[in-house]
Specification:
Radius of gyration: 30 Å
Low-confidence stretches: none
CATH topology of the largest domain: Nucleotidyltransferase, domain 5
Number of strands: 7
CATH architecture of the largest domain: 2-Layer Sandwich
GO biological process, one term: DNA integration
CATH class of the largest domain: Alpha Beta
Protein name: Integrase catalytic domain-containing protein
Order of helices and strands: HHHHHHEEEEEHEHEH
Number of helices: 9
Amino acid sequence: MSGTRITDQQVRLYMNKRKHHPQEVAAAKTGISVRTARRIERDATLPSQKPRHSWRTRPDPFAEVWDSEVVPLLRNAPHLMGITVLRKLQDDHPDRYPDSMRRTLERRIRQWRALEGPTQEVFFPQEHQPGVRGLSDFTDMSKLCVTIGGAPFGHRLYHFVLAFSRWEYANVVEGGESFEALTTGLQNALWQAGGCPREHRTDSLSAAFRNLTEQEDFTTRYAALLDHYGMEGTRNNRGLGHEYGAVKNMCCSIKN
């Protein structure tokens, strides 16, 4: 395939096939072109033994406009697509930048974003330990359009998950995300699980947190509930829903 580097294994396989077959047949059996086969016969050095060049093999077609036109566009709108930038260059410089240069421009833009573009948020995988964390969440089930006797049944699910084992519990909630719904669901889950995790995590439930204050502050009733079961209360950082993935992903699987 054009543009794909051959491997050491392909070179060895070709040389072995070449002992018993003509060049064209050996190339076909190896999955390479006849042109590549001729190149191997001229120089049988394995690809891994050949130094890779790091210099440009042709002049940069965007050198004249990169710093003066392309980079300012990217700084003002870092998420611009390569084709959009190319169309702008084509409008400003007719006949200089054909569509065939699109991939070259996109490659340059990727390099710029990696080296000089806006800082990207880094995500680290969550590692859970046995018995450490349980998570509670509510999910709205209205999209399922459940009916009882032909009448719509609006409800939510309270959902509890043990982060390490993925053990889960759910019950139907008629109403909102109230403290009563949280305590009923949590206590039922803990009784069925046969024990309590060290930490109980939620998102910013108003039934558990005083969200109008800047500091971490439990409601009085939620603090008493945690104390009763000997659990530490935590929540994910505000606005960072990905930190709650262990329970959110399983809620989605329930809906589906």
